[in-house]
Design a protein that fits this description.
The chain has 426 residues and is an alpha+beta fold. It has 14 helices and 16 strands. It has a five-stranded antiparallel sheet. Strands 1, 2, 3 and 4 form a four-stranded mixed sheet that branches. Strands 13-14-15-16 form a four-stranded mixed sheet. Helix 1 packs parallel to helix 4 and helix 5 packs across helix 8.
């Protein structure tokens, strides 16, 4: 950064010293901010709208120059007497006359305390704005990445220190069976970055997002990073179970075995990170019958009828395999539907035979029978459904915090009044 020898006001020096080098703010921006601040300080001190010129001379020293008009009786800072003008002019002073203009060098040392304070405020404000821009760009580039942080606060809105700012993890981005505690070291997925009020950077992180699992695999399995194996789709019931569909264009590579590893060593590291969450890895196929059949594992499928246009799959299983195919609370088939993108209807062989028999009774009877079986039809889930707006959660958190502060203040006042009454009684 260039020398600023001529600017030695203590307030400005303090402002510049408060700029953290770790913020990676360009020296040019600091100089520009200082120039803006000096212009404002000049106007504040001299009470004028006359625009000064702030430059860096050949020696790297900041100079403040203002153009003044020579008049007989100066009124205001934009004017100067002929006598004063001649004192300032080193050469050609005798050629000066009324009506001429002269550049006058102003020393920042002459600025008053209020002007210096204003300059400091402008510098710090510009630095804060620049820091926010740097943070925003930094974390925008980190979106979709996993970072390690320390839990600062728990509850509906978990606050996580991720280095140089605090990120928020709302309830719907937390894992239902995970318990967080203050100072806990956790890994989180950067889901979104936005500018909130006053330009503050707000980062939302997640541990329940399906892409958190995907990124964990990408960090753990080099073949994914190298493009030898690809995760085609993923479906997750956070904290309980995840299904991944993987694919490799290389016939010599087993995509499922690559992710699982020998004796499950590779996948075990990810399961440990997810606190024991079950992970099913299946091979993706462009054949929807084969893909859906694999997605419904561990169930044995008897038959599948596909309607590709409507993205619908009619699945037939034995009576014993029905509960396996559906899963607890419909989890297995819901994940399979989300993984494949197909609406899946599961029926036993007996149920399907009965429907075919009822078709003989007419359309009305057939429709009635179909409606009776609708509870076994599952559609791909939209993971954005029922999510609360993050702004509402943040504002609610602020409101609760302010309420606690107010309650504490009122309680403190009551205690003070009680002490005062006791002293009066004594």
């Amino acid at each position: 950064m260039k020398k600023i020898e001529d600017v030695n006001m203590k307030e400005l020096e303090k402002a510049i010293l408060e700029i953290n080098e770790e913020d990676e703010i360009e020296p040019e921006f600091v100089v520009e901010s200082l120039i803006t601040a000096l212009k404002a300080a000049y106007k504040e001190h001299f009470g004028t709208e006359n625009e000064p010129e702030v430059i860096i001379n050949d020696k790297g020293i900041l100079e403040i120059n203002v153009t003044k008009k020579i008049v007989e009786k100066p009124e205001g800072d934009a004017e100067i007497s002929l006598e004063e003008a001649k004192k300032l002019k080193k050469t050609g002073k005798n050629k000066l006359k009324i009506g001429d203009e002269i550049n006058v060098k102003i020393s920042p040392k002459s600025f008053g305390r209020i002007a210096a304070q204003k300059a400091k405020q402008i510098i710090l404000q510009k630095m804060r704005e620049k820091e926010k821009e740097i943070r925003y760009d930094e974390y925008t580039n980190k979106m979709g990445e996993i970072v390690t942080g320390l839990v600062q606060k728990t509850g509906n809105l978990v606050i996580v220190d991720i280095g140089n700012l605090e990120a928020v993890m709302p309830r719907y981005e937390q894992v239902k069976n995970e318990n967080y505690y203050v100072n806990q070291k956790i890994r989180v997925y950067i889901k979104s970055v936005r500018k909130a009020q006053k330009g503050d950077v707000q980062v939302m992180v997640s541990r329940s997002d399906k892409n958190f699992v995907k990124r964990l695999f990408e960090y753990e399995i080099p073949e994914l990073d190298e493009g030898l194996v690809e995760i085609k789709s993923i479906a997750r019931d956070a904290g309980d179970r995840t299904k991944l569909a993987v694919y490799s264009s290389n016939p010599n590579i087993d995509p499922v075995g690559t992710l699982v590893g020998q004796k499950g060593m590779r996948i075990q590291n990810i399961i440990n990170e997810l606190d024991g969450e079950r992970i099913d890895v299946i091979e993706w196929s462009e054949d929807p019958m084969k893909f859906i059949s694999s997605a419904l594992l561990p169930a044995d499928i008897m038959a599948i009828d596909i309607n590709e246009e409507e993205k619908f799959a009619q699945v037939i299983v034995s009576e014993k395999q029905l509960s396996v195919a559906i899963g607890k609370a419909g989890q297995n088939v819901k994940l399979a539907a989300t993984l494949t993108g197909y609406k899946i209807d599961i029926k036993t062989e007996e149920q399907f035979r009965k429907i075919l028999e009822n078709m003989e009774y007419g359309e009305d009877e057939f429709e009635k029978e179909i409606n009776n079986e609708k509870e076994l039809t599952f559609e791909p889930e939209d993971e954005n459904v029922n999510k609360i707006d993050l702004n509402e959660e943040v504002e609610e958190e602020k409101e609760n915090k302010n309420k606690k502060i107010l309650e504490g203040s009122l309680k403190s006042k009551e205690v003070s009044k009680e002490k005062a009454l006791e002293e009066d009684n004594d």
